């Protein structure tokens, strides 16, 4: 799909150099319109950005280049691609560059186009062949699936998330057969395409459907046409200037507990997931996430006082919120802790099946030894991960421990921490790595079974329980589980210890607060409005935001005051979110905005200056700060690039192979792409050669997975066991 670009040479023969950049200096250069390079002179001569719509800054999916965490900048002079050390670093650079091009972003009405595509499976394809898909948006290549062998069907089960898209009219999947270049008969690799008009998948819900594949020519006598099962959703989210969300953001920051308790019993599970995700992102941006999660969890403790075993066993707003927060804050931790282990397991050929009904008796002892070794490695990685445990999660867990002690329930704090981290995060990630962005590819059957068995053992360890007669074939692991209980207790103590918080890294990614507030507004307006009547001024606040949305460029009402789209104003600081505000309505004026009696921060009035995303996030450099102060305030460190991945002077979009092209050229990514990966079908290396036993192995440091949060396991319900049934059903 990049015919004039050799992907292999672009990765290996350009002589990359690490260049350490000061992000503030870079931003100053960009803001001043300087043509000074982001990179060293030996890599790219200049990066010229102009403040207009012609500059496109977007991530590049790892499946296209075989390299993670890349982004692409397209200007009138061409396209340049840069590789970062982590997804958070990439996202922050992209946002800073976008703000250099559009400095008034937060004070402008904007449109955010977002697409989610699940390429699930295909059927009625010739057997004994391997297949992959290329995903194109309006004929521009955006991603590629892994190459999978057809058994009953061809199963990919891969999710792709795209944001900040230009306007898109169609999604096209090009289906290819992997070819053996040494065989003359395998000349044709193109199978056909599926074209999905964006209008048919536009909305708030995912649309799942089997689509027929349009093929270049249909052989006579064929009884069936290949079909592909795809689940997709396209959204164009209108985001108002941040000033018009000010009152809404204040209400959410001060009344999250009342909001959750009021809606808990009346909304669906899907609505709970969406509400929890929006609240977590918003409240983390406004500095209230720890209070939110502590208040919510303590309300769960109080509710389940006489039935402790129900905590974290139900799908409540509390459990969904901690799940979302773990995904948001813990993604880099997850990659650092288990990324190398999971990757090595995918590449190994160890058989860990220990159920006698599934393997021969002669192999059982060997398989038991394999499983024991894998569990020891996994637990060693987890134990050693306290070194990189996120500061924000440590603060939350320490707060839980303190509040449980204040309630005279210190015994339950360990259960809360263990259940949230293991039952809701680490063990699901081990069992389904692709759902947690540890791997793009869904595991093969043997690897999936090994991961499930490892997750069972680790979960029993975290529950401080042994295997019982329900799964007798796992009884041999009880010795390992009992021996490691003390280590597990020390680990849980360490990650909830308030001492030493300053020595651990915190979250350094980017949250689009405007988008989150817009999504939450949409969700709340779709609910039965009778549910909101107990929430004081919230219905009126929602109506004000709806009014602003229906008046693009016009005058709208916020808090009873007429406001127009604000002009850019110089930011003077970052006040804390207010806990109260003056109301024009007498009935609303008596409504006190508090969370469990907590009142914090100065009041923001309607006369305050324009509120922007960086105000609430406390991450904007001020003219009065020197470099050192700015770095301490934002948490930004100098970033390191490996550049350039590629530099194309032509701005023409990358074209997929056309359906009429039965014999792709050698330069085509459709037939080459990740050819080395697809042709490597040989026997996997032994697992012991992939991993080194010990606590010090696997210093990934700067590697992390894509930030896009994966959805729940419903996508693979036909292939993956229910985690609750699988991991917690053992006899105690």
From TrEMBL:
Keywords: GTPase activation, Phosphoprotein. The keyword Transmembrane helix does not apply. Residues 553-588, 646-732 are annotated as: Disordered. Pfam families: C2, DAB2P_C, PH_RASGAP, RasGAP. One of its GO terms (molecular function) is GTPase activator activity. It comes from Acanthochromis polyacanthus (spiny chromis). It comes from the Eukaryota. Residues 93-211 form the C2 domain. Residues 271-463 form the Ras-GAP domain. Residues 553-565, 574-588, 704-714 have a biased composition (Low complexity). SUPFAM superfamilies: C2 domain (Calcium/lipid-binding domain, CaLB), GTPase activation domain, GAP, PH domain-like. Residues 646-674, 723-732 have a biased composition (Polar residues). PROSITE patterns: C2, PH_DOMAIN, RAS_GTPASE_ACTIV_1, RAS_GTPASE_ACTIV_2. InterPro entries: C2_dom, C2_domain_sf, DAB2P_C, PH-like_dom_sf, PH_domain, Ras_GTPase, RasGAP_CS, RasGAP_dom. This is DAB2 interacting protein. Residues 1-102 form the PH domain.
């Amino acid at each position: 799909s990049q015919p004039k670009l050799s992907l292999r040479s672009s990765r290996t023969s350009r002589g990359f150099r690490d260049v350490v950049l000061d992000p503030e200096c870079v931003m100053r250069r960009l803001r001043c319109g300087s043509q000074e390079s982001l990179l060293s002179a030996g890599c790219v001569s200049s990066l010229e950005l102009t403040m207009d719509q012609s500059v496109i800054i977007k991530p590049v999916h790892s499946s296209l280049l075989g390299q993670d965490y890349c982004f692409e900048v397209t200007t009138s002079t061409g396209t340049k691609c840069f590789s970062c050390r982590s997804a958070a670093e990439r996202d922050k650079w992209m946002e800073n560059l976008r703000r250099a091009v559009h400095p008034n972003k937060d004070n402008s009405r904007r449109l955010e186009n977002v697409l989610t595509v699940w390429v699930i499976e295909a059927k009625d394809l010739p057997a004994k062949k391997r297949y992959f898909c290329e995903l194109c948006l309006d004929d521009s290549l955006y991603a590629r699936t892994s190459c999978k062998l057809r058994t009953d069907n061809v199963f990919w089960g891969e999710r792709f998330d795209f944001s900040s898209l230009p306007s898109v009219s169609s999604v096209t999947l090009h289906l290819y057969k992997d070819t053996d270049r040494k065989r003359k008969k395998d000349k044709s690799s193109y199978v056909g395409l599926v074209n999905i008009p964006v209008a048919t998948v536009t909305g708030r819900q995912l649309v799942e459907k089997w689509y027929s594949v349009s093929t270049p020519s249909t052989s006579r006598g064929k009884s069936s046409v290949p079909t592909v099962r795809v689940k997709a959703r396209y959204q164009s989210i209108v985001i108002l200037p941040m000033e018009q969300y000010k009152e809404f953001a204040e209400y959410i920051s001060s009344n999250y507990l009342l909001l959750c308790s009021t809606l808990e019993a009346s909304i669906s599970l899907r609505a709970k997931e969406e509400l929890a995700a929006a609240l977590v992102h918003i409240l983390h941006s406004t500095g209230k996430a720890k209070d939110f999660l502590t208040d919510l969890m303590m309300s769960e403790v109080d509710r389940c006082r006489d039935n402790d075993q129900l905590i974290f066993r139900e799908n409540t707003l509390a459990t969904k919120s901690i799940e979302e927060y773990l995904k948001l804050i813990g993604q880099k931790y997850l990659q650092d802790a288990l990324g190398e282990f999971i990757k090595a397991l995918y590449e190994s050929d160890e058989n860990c099946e220990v159920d006698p009904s599934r393997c021969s008796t002669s192999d059982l002892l060997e398989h038991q030894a394999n499983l024991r070794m894998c569990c020891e490695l996994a637990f060693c990685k987890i134990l050693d991960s306290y070194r990189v445990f996120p500061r924000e999660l440590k603060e939350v867990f320490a707060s839980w421990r303190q509040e449980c002690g204040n309630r005279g329930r210190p015994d339950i704090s360990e259960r809360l921490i263990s259940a949230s981290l293991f039952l809701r995060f680490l063990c699901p990630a081990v069992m389904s790595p692709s759902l947690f962005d540890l791997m793009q590819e869904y595991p093969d059957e043997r690897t999936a079974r090994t991961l499930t068995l490892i997750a069972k053992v680790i979960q029993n360890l975290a529950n401080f329980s042994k295997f019982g007669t329900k799964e007798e074939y796992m009884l041999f692991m009880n010795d390992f589980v009992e021996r490691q209980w003390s280590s597990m207790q020390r680990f849980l103590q360490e990650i909830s210890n308030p001492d030493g918080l300053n020595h651990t890294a915190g979250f350094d990614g980017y949250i689009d607060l405007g988008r989150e507030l817009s999504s939450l507004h949409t969700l709340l307006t779709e609910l039965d409005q009778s549910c909101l009547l107990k929430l004081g001024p919230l219905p009126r606040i929602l109506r004000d935001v709806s009014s602003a949305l229906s008046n693009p460029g016009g005058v709208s009402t916020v808090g009873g005051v007429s406001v127009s789209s604000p002009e850019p104003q110089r930011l003077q600081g970052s006040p804390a979110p207010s806990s109260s505000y003056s109301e024009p309505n007498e009935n609303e004026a008596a409504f006190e905005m508090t969370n469990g009696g907590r009142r914090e921060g100065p009041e923001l009035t309607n006369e305050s200056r324009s509120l922007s995303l960086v105000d609430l996030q406390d991450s904007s450099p001020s003219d009065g700060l020197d470099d050192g102060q700015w770095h301490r305030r934002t948490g930004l460190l100098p970033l390191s690039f490996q550049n350039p991945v590629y530099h194309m002077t032509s701005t023409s979009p990358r074209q997929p192979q056309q359906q009429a092209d039965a014999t792709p050229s050698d330069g085509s990514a459709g037939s080459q792409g990740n050819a080395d990966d697809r042709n490597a079908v040989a026997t996997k290396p032994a697992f012991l050669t992939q991993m080194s036993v010990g606590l010090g192995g696997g210093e990934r440091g700067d590697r992390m997975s894509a930030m896009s949060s994966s959805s729940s396991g419903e996508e693979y319900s036909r292939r993956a066991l229910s985690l609750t049934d699988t991991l917690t059903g053992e006899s105690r």
